[in-house]
Amino acid sequence: MAGHKIYRMSFASVYAHYITKAERKGRTRAEVDEIILWLTGYSADQFAAHLADKTDFETFFGQAPALHPARTEIKGLICGVRIEEITDPLMREIRYLDKLIDELAKGRPMAKILRTAPAA
Fold first, then answer.
1. What is the pTM of this model?
2. Does residue 120 fall inside a structural domain?
């Protein structure tokens, strides 16, 4: 697990890319934040502290208060890899988030992204 460079990257540095991707498609930072808080269980203040501290991915997901149980419903390809086939637990969490941000950028409604609406 320690061999993956992304694990040691600052979550804040990648978060900026999530925001850019969403805003380029007419979505908002607030929606990106809602997705992250839903996925991790962090409060807005806890999340802000991790951004300010430049927490790495391993710590960010390792300290998440309550990874959302519905995240296992996130399926499909991300970066050419099927999420359901990722065996490394941390990489799977990172790819869940990547997939949710992709869904946001593609214009999917928040209720479906957050798995609160019946699948179409």
1. 0.90
2. no
